[in-house]
Amino acid sequence: MIQAQRILAPLLLAAVSGFLGCSPTIQVVSQWNNPAYTTPPLRRILVGGSGGESAIRRNLEDEFVAQLRTAGIDAVPSYRYIPNDPNVDESELKRVAKEAGADAVIFARSVGMEQKTEYHPGYYPYTSFGFFGPHFGASWYGLYGAPSIRNYNVYTSETTLYDVGKNEVVWTGTVRTYDPQNVNGAIQNYVETVLKALNEKQLLRTGGR
Predict the structure, then answer these.
(1) Which is the CATH superfamily of the domain at 24-118+148-200?
(2) Bridge partner list, 130
(3) Are the CB atoms for 162 and 170 separated by under 8 Å?
(4) CB half-sphere exposure, 138, CA atoms < 13 A
(5) pLDDT 10s per residue in the chain (209 long)?
């Protein structure tokens, strides 16, 4: 029993540490949709990104286009029409949308970044199950280690869906990204998170639905 505990202790410590440190990497923390809006079939969406490097903007727009097309909605990136400006604004996107033949715009813009500090104590309780004499029971043990401190960044952005023809905001959501380690992976997850929220509100209806 003691030997088994010595073997399991490092594994449990790693598991508990991983559990304490895990949180959704990207999540929609608030959202609003127009309750009076009736979603028409969307023919084409212009996608625009603002804030950050031009390469990140282009990758973000390309990922939105790819995932929207997979869902059966035609889409086009704004950098085809506004190639050199990383800080695109809403009015410019709405103007370009008509040129692109788009009836809707998805606009993602950076809001800010905040530095966070996460502290974990050096004591992690866990339960051990086993036979104690003629009975089966459980007991609590503690694993001790050095306290850990982790500094990380939280990025906040806002994504908005516009109906170009009606000149209305259809949906807007605030998205937080927690300490992305891989830019391309974070972009893919970001787009998946936003489109999932839009689908849950049934705001991405195609002509075949």
Answers:
(1) ABC-type transport auxiliary lipoprotein component (3.40.50.10610)
(2) 137
(3) yes
(4) 5
(5) 444 334 333 332 222 222 233 345 888 999 999 998 887 778 899 999 986 678 888 999 999 999 999 999 999 999 999 988 777 888 889 899 989 999 999 999 888 777 777 766 655 555 544 444 444 444 445 555 566 776 767 888 899 999 998 999 999 999 988 876 777 888 899 999 999 999 999 998 765 44
Strand 74-77 versus strand 44-50 pairing type: parallel
Query: Cα–Cα distance between 109 and 153 in angstroms, integer?
Result: 17
Q: How far apart are CA 109 and CA 92, in angstroms?
A: 14
CA distance 76 to 64: 9
Domain boundaries, the chain: 24-118+148-200
What is the model's pTM?
0.71
